[in-house]
Structure formats: C-alpha cells, structure tokens
Amino acid sequence: MDTIKPNEPCFFTQQVFLIGTYNEDDSPHFAPISWISWTCGEPACLVITMGGNKRTKRNIKRTSLLSAAVLTPDLLPFAERCNSRAKNDMLNWSDRPSFERGKALCVPIISGAKWTYECEVIHTVELGGAHTYFAAIKQINVAPEIQSLDFIDLRIINPVIYAHYHYFSVGEHLGEIGDYSKGR
Known about the structure:
Elements: E1 14-15, E2 17-22, E3 28-33, E4 36-39, E5 45-50, H1 55-63, E6 65-70, H2 76-82, E7 99-101, E8 108-110, E9 115-127, E10 130-142, H3 144-147, H4 154-157, E11 161-162, E12 167-168
Antiparallel strand pairs: 1-11, 2-3, 2-6, 4-5, 5-10, 6-9, 7-8, 9-10, 11-12
C-alpha cells in the first residue's frame, strides 16, 4: 500500500452512490461519488462533496436537482463507464441500465436500483476547489424486496463500499446497537 500522506483527502471507507442529473439536452448523466454523508436535522439532507470540473457539478448548478442511487455490484460495470478515472469510450454500452424520471423531482432514476434518493440542493459550500452540496431529500425510492425487510439489512441491499481505489461488499451481520453492552 502506498503511504497515506498527512492531510491527504482519503477516507478509510465510503459508500458509493451514482449521482444522476440531466444534461442540457435532457439526456441522463451519472457519476459515481463516494464523498457522501447525511444530516438528520430538518430538512434531512444528503451532503455530497465533489472536486474538479465535473459535468455533474455543472448540471447541479443549472438545475439544483439530483438523484443518488446506492451502488450495488450489478451496477459496477455501468459505474465504471461513468467514472472519469476508468472511462473507456471503446466499451460496449449494451449492458447500460434503463432510466426513468423521478417520482417527485425531474431527476433521472436507474430502473431497478435498490435504493435511490431524489434531492434538491438547498445550500452549496465551495472550499478549496471542491463543492459540498446540502441536498434536501424529497423522495426515497426503495425496491419492494428491500421495503419488505424487518430492518435495513445491508446483506440484502449489498452496497458497494469503496476504500482508496478498491471496491468491497458487505459481510456478516454482527448485531444491533446494545448487543455488546449486555455482557455476552
């Protein structure tokens, strides 16, 4: 492993989302982004940070709207084709997913995605060339098989976890909050 330098912009682990926006010609555009968190205040927001001069940033500036789909292993080939670091225009797009419009906002949604947020940006902070968006959650679209679960079981959703240029999936369920304070 390369040495991680002090103050290097690197998280230990991050969940990946496919951020969806519409281009000016109304075509859907997606970018895999892993610098995402959330707020639990009112309104509940996703907090999304992006650096560089991405088309996604230009689309958000123009519309203030975005979708955020949880990346799952079945969507990795599509995510790689949308990733500016791994993009290869010679690859076949035949396995590209289908898209639909959001239920609450005019945002592109990946048909069949297991968990997708529809958001409206309500505040933007620019710092050091990066933009951090506070995007109010207006709609959460959850696949029926996920909606019927007793709890948010990550083994079923199987989100992709990112750790410094590597993808991972979720392992075993270790318990609930409080299980380890009961003295096993």
